[in-house]
Known about the structure:
Blueprint lengths: L2 E7 L11 H8 L3 E7 L12 E2 L9 E2 L1 H11 L4 E12 L2 H8 L3 E5 L8 H7 L5 E5 L9 H12 L10 H4 L18 E2 L2 E2 L9 H19 L1 H6 L7 H4 L2
Parallel strand pairs: 1-2, 1-6, 5-6, 5-7
Antiparallel strand pairs: 3-4, 8-9
Helix pairs in contact: 2-4, 3-5
The structure holds 6-chloroguanine.
Amino acid sequence: RPLRIDVVTIFPEYLEPLRAALLGRALDRGLLELGVHDLRDWTHDVHRAVDDAPYGGGPGMVMKPQVWGDALDDVCGERTRLIVPTPAGRPFTQRLAHEYAEQEHLVFACGRYEGIDQRVLTDAARRMPVDEVSIGDYVLVGGEAAVLVIAEAVVRLLPGVLGNPVSAEQDSFSDGLLEGPSYTRPEVWRELAVPSVLRSGNHALIERHRRDEALARTFHRRPDLLERLAADDLDARDRAV
Ligand code: 6GU
């Protein structure tokens, strides 16, 4: 069964890249279904207003609950997982990407302005799982770019989408570490040599070398990931690095 993804946004053209490259191929091959919907199709007034001033005052505008309520009533189904990109969400991770890849139907609700009236999400959560997720500690203008990121991370995990399924298992994060460097021919380029162990043919030594490089890179760039590695994921040889 294909994964179905629906996106509700006031900028449907922003989601056009979803039909290109990797995701476009998954669509063509029937592994993925995609619907992109203009939120303004559910507006009630001649001005097609989607936002209003915030209760309690303050800067910015808040997206109106009636419009979002009607849109989600139409787009969501019995087996929908609703995903709301927001910098105030919980972190989107590779673990969550795997979870989403197992669902039947993902609906992304893209907020702009200062966000969506919280009652929309409270109401939706009466009928379906609702995740507010963030793709990192910085602020975007709206959720659209985050949907491109999340959808790509999820779709590449669907069976049949990647050419070579082992490559997903060897990704950064699959073992809790960043991936180390890669090399291809020539052996020496601009006086820079490929590490000789990679040309030794000794597969145990090569595995050990790659593990050492991954540990060193993770230590320097993402020490927080090492803290989280379970004690039993590190062997005595790892600890020596
Ligand atoms: Cl998921 N949405 C928005 N609007 N800003 C973000 C974000 C998401 N993640 C980081 N910044």
